[in-house]
Amino acid sequence: MADTNSTPILKDDLDIVIPTIRNLDFLEMWRPFFQPYHLIIVQDGDPSKTIRVPDGFDYELYNRNDINRILGSKASCISFKDSACRCFGYLISKKKYIFTIDDDCFVAKDPSGKEINALEQHIKNILTPSTPFFFNTLYDPYREGADFVRGYPFSLREGVPTAVSHGLWLNIPDYDAPTQLVKPMERNTRYVDAVLTVPKATLFPMCGMNLAFNRDLIGPAMYFGLMGDGQPIGRYDDMWAGWCMKVICDHLGFGVKTGLPYIWHSKASNPFTNLRKEYKGIFWQEQIVPFFQTVTLPKDCNTVQKCYIELSKLVREKLSSVDEYFIKLADAMLTWIEAWDELNPSEEATELPKFVSK
Ligand SMILES: O=c1ccn([C@@H]2O[C@H](COP(=O)(O)OP(=O)(O)O[C@H]3OC[C@H](O)[C@H](O)[C@H]3O)[C@@H](O)[C@H]2O)c(=O)[nH]1
Ligand SMILES: [Mn+2]
């Protein structure tokens, strides 16, 4: 997909963020789609290890020493030894859009056998509106060959700006550890040719392995929560970000899409290791989800930062009884916003769009 003068669309407006602990040979398969774009590689784990990046890619690479040098004491909000470290890439980027992908995600094929340019589909999703206020039964009405169906209010057909595009996975699905343990051989072979808007007031489990978002619209809310080294849970970083992001999108009138594009997820991480990381989260989420479902943000929260700071207060107030970890997480959410505003001073706060219900 290129714009009029055959420059890859959003070439200078989008960064690809990759969290990694390994050499990035997987980029060879993505080269036709990714090479024109700038990569931000967040190297996790031992900073003395050298990560090999295939020739020909334009990238910047940050390891833990870089994160500590750039953020100083605020580096405490960036996870270590967990893919949640990827959010440092969102912080340091200066671009309007972000696409983040794991290094064990490869190019998938659609039912016709055609290789899927996941980045191109995310860009289409992000650049077209969402429809969170009224469900369109023919899925995304802005896609080629689709439209609003009879009975869809014309007053709502303009849609709202799309903040997030959530892609899916063929082969290894993003299952939690208990499901992985009881279904070790299950593979996702079902290609569903659909893009849906997640309705307003509905939460969903956001997976970080194939995800794009409008950084200007929702970037400050995309903090992947404190996980990994020294933390009581793991593999809930993207879930946390997804729940915070969704309540803020609902409040500010932005949309979230899920469905196409698919990537080919090649590696099943160890279910026993995953169980150890997830198990507290499996209990806690039965209290965390109702918390997010009942959150209301004040009307004067008219920027993502203000919403996020308010959310941090509510987390401290309402979830500290679940575990003291949430006090630490609430603090880390504030540190994240301080770091965001410090590294992105010029970005004007996002104004309330005209269609937000007062
Ligand atoms: O300590 C670490 C471990 C891994 N990474 C990088 O994160 C990416 C995901 O790692 P991996 O594919 O090994 O784990 P999965 O279980 O498949 O990941 C899923 O569940 C956890 C997260 O939510 C993740 O987003 C999901 O995809 C990969 O690029 C590793 O190199 C790391 O940075 N630090
Ligand atoms: Mn993986």
From TrEMBL:
GO terms for biological process: cell wall organization; plant-type cell wall organization or biogenesis; UDP-L-arabinose metabolic process. The record marks 150, 157 as: Required for activity. Its main location: Golgi. The keyword Transcription does not apply. GO terms for cellular component: cytosol; Golgi apparatus. One of its GO terms (molecular function) is UDP-arabinopyranose mutase activity. Belongs to the RGP family. This is UDP-arabinopyranose mutase. It comes from Cucumis sativus (Cucumber). The lineage of its organism: Eukaryota, Viridiplantae, Streptophyta, Embryophyta, Tracheophyta.
